[in-house]
Amino acid sequence: MTASSGYFKPADTAFSGLPESDMQLLYVSPQGHTRLFKGFMGERIVVFKCLKEELRGKEPYETMLHREYEIARPLRHPGICDHLAFLQHETLGSCIVLEWIDGRTLGTLLATEKPDGEKRRQLFLQLCDALAYIHHKQVLHKDIKPENILVTRVGDRIKVLDFGLADSDSMTCGHLPAGTEGYAAPEVTAGGDASVRSDIFSLGRILTQLLPEAAPVAARCTDPDAERRYPSVEAVKDAVLEATGKGTPRKKSPFVLLVTVAVAAGLLAGTVLLPERGRHKAAGKLFDKAAALVYAEADTPAPPKAEGPFTDTLDCFNGRCIVTAPDGCKGIMDTTGHLLQPPAWTTAEFLTADIALLTRDGLAYLCTADGRIFAEDTDAEALAATCTERYEGLLAADVRGWDTVLDSLDALCWTCLSKEGQTGAVRLYESVRTATEAVSGTMNRAQRQRLEEIENRFQEHRP
């Protein structure tokens, strides 16, 4: 019998009835405060998450439902259920509108379909990617379990659900010990604070079910002592790759620091949006120095050097530019001469500062700032529209959003403090901080406070 998730204190949440509507009731939380209905928003099938009838209009439940939406709304990742809107429904009251996912829970899949070892491995790696992204956004899920993970029927893709117990650094209330017995970490069930390592404990419980051959990894994930667990989801993923012998562990990428520099370079050049010819020179100089430092210290080798010669360079911005080879094909190169995409494309253009549109052989592709292809279509115009409508929140916010800029600045600060004598890193931090402060007027109060905290830590401990 599946355990129910909730805060670790008793609650009277008896269910009293259904709304009078033609929507389909999907689920009623046995011990929680919410219900799920399948319905429509226009022509789109969606899921409405609302309070039980007897809890409508009551505190703290109304606040908790809205808090869940505010935490999950900014999360845009292929492995996370999209939270589309928060609205007042005439029948259901306050509702979170969720994307409809045609799938089954991970628990159901394991019980009924008996997937092979490779499929189990891929599902776990997808879960790691989604949870790592959640943590990167300063969010703790606090209720990772098979029932909160859907697997799509098309493509067997992971979708993480239910942020009802989640915590975010940006929220000032609701930080209570919560979870599901059997998946919640010991320190949480004892009433202590949750942490990244608490989510890793839950991840280890799922790993035990998915990959018995990775038992040593699962054992460390679920160690009763939180300090002995893996420090991050990325470290868990690396260990699973080693244990299963199906791939090489992930190397540390220089991209996080390069993103920080790219953003700062764009700010110094006078823009954070689309490029304008001639504005890239100041940005390029800063990026050149930063890239040399980052590539020198990174475990990952730099991308291959461009062989050229190139007849011209176009749309230089944020340390990247589109280059044209003698045969007319286009590629993407950073200002240090490293190719992020080889010159093998018929056309190439930046849709935003962070996403490029590439075409060849009748197909169009979207490409991230680090050269990764993440979407394709036969219609370039439709794909460009898709970039704006669907992927801008996922990718552009990752690069230009203030939370991510502060994440990267924070990481750069720790790099400076952990590498005594690295004057290049210190100068780079100071340049990025100056550029960030110059346009910090668009930050909210919590973001400005975090910027001050990063700077205070740097000044207190600087080499």
Question: What does this protein structure show overall?
Answer:
There is one protein chain. This protein is α+β, with helices and mostly antiparallel strands. The protein has 4 domains: 21-99, 2-Layer Sandwich (Phosphorylase Kinase, domain 1); 103-244, Orthogonal Bundle (Transferase(Phosphotransferase), domain 1), CATH 1.10.510.10; 255-400, no CATH class; 402-461, no CATH class. 39% of the residues lie in helices and 21% in strands. It is built from 13 helices and 20 strands. The strands form 6 sheets. It has a 5-stranded antiparallel beta sheet with strand order 2-3-4-6-5, covered by helices on one side. It has a 4-stranded antiparallel beta sheet with strand order 13-14-15-16, covered by helices on one side. A hairpin with a 4-residue loop joins strand 19 (363-368) and strand 20 (373-377). Helix 5 packs antiparallel against helix 6 (215-221), helix 8 packs across helix 12 and helix 11 (402-418) packs antiparallel against helix 12 (423-438). The longest helix has 21 residues, at 380-400. It is globular. 40% of the residues are buried. Residues 8-21, 249-304 and 390-400 have low confidence and may be disordered.
Topology overview:
Blueprint: E1 5-7, E2 24-28, E3 34-41, E4 44-51, H1 61-72, E5 83-89, E6 93-99, E7 103-105, H2 106-112, H3 117-136, E8 139-140, E9 149-152, E10 158-160, E11 167-168, E12 178-180, H4 186-189, H5 196-210, H6 215-221, H7 233-244, H8 255-268, H9 280-297, E13 312-317, E14 320-324, E15 330-334, E16 339-345, E17 347-350, E18 355-360, E19 363-368, E20 373-377, H10 380-400, H11 402-418, H12 423-438, H13 445-461
Antiparallel strand pairs: 1-12, 2-3, 3-4, 4-6, 5-6, 7-9, 8-11, 9-10, 13-14, 14-15, 15-16, 17-18, 18-19, 19-20
Helix pairs in contact: 3-5, 3-7, 5-6, 8-9, 8-11, 8-12, 9-12, 10-11, 11-12, 11-13
